[in-house]
Amino acid sequence: MDLSTIDEPTEHTGPVMKTEKRKLAIWMTMEAIEVIGLKRIVLDRDVAEAVGFFHAVIAPQVFATAERFGIHRVDVEETEDGRLPG
User: Fold this and answer.
1) What's the domain range around 52?
2) For the chain, what is the domain count?
3) Which of 51, 62, 65, 75 has the fewest C-beta atoms under 10 angstroms from its C-beta?
4) CA angle 47, 61, 70 (to 5 degrees)
């Protein structure tokens, strides 16, 4: 399932309703130390640290928001190489 879009009804055209894909965006909050860590990772271009940061900080917030919207959660263990689909 692509977590970045949702189907939203736009108009009724008889027995079938058209849908429009809309990007779903969330605002994330991070502690100052997390922002500093992210900036260091970007400046160092440290891929391993970026992956670790994503799984420790970003993914939990995205999963929590997805659950609030009723979007199926994909566990990292279910994916190949720890990558999320989409």
Assistant:
1) 5-82
2) 1
3) 75
4) 125
What tokens does 79 get?
């994916």
Task: Quick: pLDDT tens for 52-76.
Answer: 998 899 888 888 888 888 877 666 5
Q: Which helix (H) or strand (E) covers residue 21, if one does?
A: strand 17-23
Contacts for 5 with CB less than 8 Å, ≥ 6 apart:
21, 22, 23, 24
Q: Which two tokens stand for residue 53?
A: 């940061």
What tokens does 68 get?
Answer: 């609030």
